């Protein structure tokens, strides 16, 4: 599965939906998420969807930062992946503090069943300090 994070607001030709994902980060997060927008929703198995996270970055994002995506039903993990934030995104780290729009493009696995799932996306520094976290209940259709 290909993961790609982009740091500029790309032209996205998908219909935006109501905000179902929220920040699950704490007060020590270095990316204070103020809004999360979802495009191409509900998610459809085998297709690409885009999640745009908007917020304020208080510390530099450096090489070695990771993105951890997990999809669960209750406590059972159906899908989990860890990707390098900088190398997978095609951007150059370090990313300096300031206002940030972070678009994450994710291909939904074709073999995932239709249903309602819990999604969590965490960004962690090379020292495992949380940079940001978003989570919520999502729908996947066939």
UniProtKB/TrEMBL annotation:
Domain MD-2-related lipid-recognition per the UniProt entry, residue ranges: 21-138
* Function of the protein: Catalyzes the intermembrane transfer of phosphatidylglycerol and phosphatidylinositol.
Source taxon at top rank: Eukaryota
Signal peptide limits? 1-15
Keywords in alphabetical order, please.
Lipid transport, Signal, Transport
Matching Pfam families, A to Z?
E1_DerP2_DerF2 (PF02221)
The protein's assembly and partners: Monomer.
Q: Which family does it belong to?
A: Belongs to the NPC2 family.
Gene3D superfamilies with a match to the protein in the record = 2.60.40.770
Q: What is this protein called?
A: Phosphatidylglycerol/phosphatidylinositol transfer protein
Q: Which residues form a coiled coil?
A: none
A GO BP annotation: sterol transport
Q: Drop me one GO molecular function for this one.
A: sterol binding
């Amino acid at each position: 599965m290909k993961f790609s994070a982009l740091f500029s607001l790309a032209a996205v030709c998908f219909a935006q939906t109501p905000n179902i994902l929220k920040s699950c980060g704490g007060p020590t997060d270095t990316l204070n998420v103020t809004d999360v927008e979802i495009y191409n929703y509900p998610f459809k198995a085998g297709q690409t969807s885009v999640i745009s996270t908007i917020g304020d970055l208080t510390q530099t994002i450096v090489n070695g930062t990771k993105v951890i995506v997990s999809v669960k039903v209750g406590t059972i993990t159906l899908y989990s992946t860890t990707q390098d934030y900088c190398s997978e995104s095609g951007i150059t780290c370090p990313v300096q503090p300031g206002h940030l729009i972070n678009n994450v493009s994710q291909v939904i696995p074709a073999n995932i069943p239709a249903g309602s799932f819990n999604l969590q996306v965490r960004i962690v520094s090379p020292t495992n300090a949380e940079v940001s976290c978003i989570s919520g209940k999502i729908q996947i259709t066939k």
